[in-house]
Amino acid sequence: MLWFFMLIIQPFLIRYRKFEWHRIFGKLGYAIAPLVCYSIFLVTRMVYYREIENRPIPDVLGQISLDIPSILLFGIFFILAMINRNNSSVHMRYMIATSLLMIGPGLGRALIFYGEIPFPVAVAIALYLSESIALFFLIFDFFNKLNIKPFLTIFLLLAANHLCWICQMSTWWQSFAGLLVNTFF
């Protein structure tokens, strides 16, 4: 929630020329971003140990194909935003990318609980929505002759994230997830 608060308030601080406050909140991001990654990791580990009691190991390793890439992508997008903090348009685009990763869990749960949509379909919808938003912004930047590299990078990484979900039962994902679980869980 703190991350979303920061994503919402930061543009207003810039808009109303409160640059010093923007920098102060931005520095808080250096503490909050790792906590976001760590909290995703803790939830992933908790779900893994809960589900391992009731489901076959390959199914559980497949399910974490949603979370492990999200941790990595959130970190990548945050790092790219910080590397480009002096280039406001690129910085902003990578910060938007961190929010695109957050669409999935909330939307997916809403579709499952309120729409009674099966879990795999809800996940696919959420992933396609995030990718579509990134693609929309990529096309927007292209037609407005803006730098397309940030949203091209974002779109390609979100597509790779989706690929992990599609390939969750593949040998390469199962091996990779098994290695991560054995190493970090």
Describe the protein in words.
This protein is mainly α. The chain has one domain (2-184). The chain is 83% helix and 0% strand. It contains eight helices and no strands. Helix 5 (88-113) packs antiparallel against helix 6 (119-143). The protein starts with a helix and ends with a helix. The model has no long low-confidence stretch (mean pLDDT 94).
What is the total domain count? Answer: 1
- What profile does the largest beta sheet have? none
Low-pLDDT stretches: none
Q: What is the helix tally? A: 8
Give a count of the beta strands, DSSP E runs of length 2 or more: 0
Mean pLDDT: 94
C-alpha Rg (nearest Å):
18 Å
What overall geometry do the principal axes of the alpha carbons give?
Answer: globular
**How large is the share of residues in beta strands?**
under 5%
Helix-and-strand structural type: mainly alpha
Order of helices and strands: HHHHHHHH
Helix content: over 70%
Looking at the chains present, what oligomeric state does this protein adopt?
single chain
- First-residue to last-residue Cα separation: 25 Å
